[in-house]
Amino acid sequence: MRSTAIPSFFRMLALAACLFPAVQAAAAQPATMRLDYQHSGNALGEHYAAERVLVEPLPWPGNMARTIDDSNRGVNMVEVVDIKTGKVLYSRGFSTIFGEWSSTDEARTSSRAFQESVRFPQPEQPVRVRILKRDERGLFSVVWSHDVDPNAQDVIRKQPPGAVKPIPIRVSGPSPDKVDLLILGDGYTAAEMGKFEATARKLADHLFTVSPFRERASDFNVWAMAAPTQESGVSRPSTGVHHASPLGTRYDIFGSERYVLTTDNRALRDLAQYAPYEFIEILVNNDTYGGGGIFGQFSTAAANNDWANYLFVHEFGHHFAGLADEYYTSPVAYQSNGERQEPWEPNATALRDPAKLKWKNHVKPGTPLPTPWPKEAYDAHAREYQQQRAALRTANRPESEMSALFESDLAYNAQLFSKAPQRHAVGAFEGANYESQGYYRPEMQCIMFDRSDTFCSVCQDGISTIIDLYAGPAKR
Fold this sequence. Notes:
This protein has helices at residues 9-19, 97-101, 106-109, 193-207, 265-272, 308-321, 375-394, 399-418, 457-471, and strands spanning 31-42, 45-59, 76-82, 88-94, 112-121, 127-134, 140-148, 167-170, 179-186, 220-226, 279-284, 291-294, 298-302, 429-432, 435-441. The chain is of the alpha+beta class.
C-alpha cells in the first residue's frame, strides 16, 4: 500500500479536513460491535449458531439519529433490542448467500453452512440480537435470537494491527453524516497496488456520473483497501484456475460461470473492519466478465473487464438498494418455485392489482398496465444471443469476443426499443426477476435490465431511499 496511507480513522479525517476545510472531526461515537454466526440448513429448513462477539477497531460509522430501518428491504432483518425495555435500538434489512443457495438444486439434496455477521453500535446494556425473515405474505418474523452482553468476558475487545491501511478516495465529511463505501481489492499482488488504487478511483468516479449517485455525491465517503496476494487474479474453477487470495473471492458460485462472490465472511469482515464502512464492493483483478451483489452484504465486479463500469454500478445496485435483476433470458442458478409472490424489491412486481402498483406515482394516466413492448422480437433475439454467449464460454474464447457480443446485443436492443411507442414510459413491462412471465419491471430499459447506462426512475427512487437512510435530512 502507498507510503502515504493514513494510520487511523481519526488521522484520515484530519487529512480530509485539510483537503476540505468544511470537513470537521466526527463527534464521539459508540464502538462497533459485531456478532459472527453460522447460518446452515437446506431447502427445507435453516439453523443459526453464534460464533463470537467482538468490538471492531473503529467507532461506529453510522448516524445515531438514523438507527431504525424503515425501507422494508431484504429477505432478512436484524434488530438489536434492549432486553429490559424491549425497545428496538437498531435495525437493518439484508439478504444472505444462504438465502440464495437454499433455492438451488444442491440445497434440495444436501445441507451447507455459511458464515454471516451483523454489525451494530455497541450498547450500554445487554441486548437481544434478533434475526427476522420475511414470510410468504411479505411480513417479518423472528427466526433466531442471541443475547449479547457488551460487558461479558468472552467479548473480543482487542484486534491485531491492520495488515494494510485504507486509502481515502473521496471524503465528503464525517462518517456519521455520510454513506461510507469501502472498495476492497482481491487478487492484486504487492506490485499491483498502484493498479488497484487507480481502478478503484476510476470506478468510484464513474459511479458518481450515474443518477441518482451523481446528484448525491456529496453524501458519500469512499475508501479503498487491498491485502496483497502471491498470485495475480482470483479463482475460476470452471477453467481449472485456482488462486489463494485474502478474501477467497471466486467465479462459478452456485455453478454460474459469471457469478463472483466470497463465502469467507470472516476474512472479509476481519479486513474491512480497519476502514469506516457501511457498504463494500470487491474488485477482483480479472478480465473475465463477472460479478455479484447481495443486499446489505457486499458486491463484486471484474475490475479489468471492458464492462467494469457497468458491472460496478449494476452490482452495487443489488448490494446498496436491494434492486432486483430485471433481465430474464440469462441462465441463473436459482430455481423458481412457480409461485408469483409480490417481490420485496422496489423495481419488480407480480402486478396482482394494477391499481395498487408499487410505483404508480411514476405512471402517467392512460398508460396501459401491463404495458406493451416488443417482447416477442426481443425474446427471439435473446435466444440466439444466449446460444452465442454459451458457445464462446464453452470454447473459452478471448474475452474480447464476449465484449463484442455484448456490444452488438446492446445495439440491437437500442434499435428495437427506439421504435416502441412506450419507449420512455413508466409502466409494467412483462419480463423481470429471471422470469419471462408473471413478473414486471418499471421501464423498458434500465441498468438492471441490460447493459444500458442509466437507472430507470423507479430504481433511482429506490436508491435515494437508502441514501436518505444513511445521509438524508434529520428525521423528526
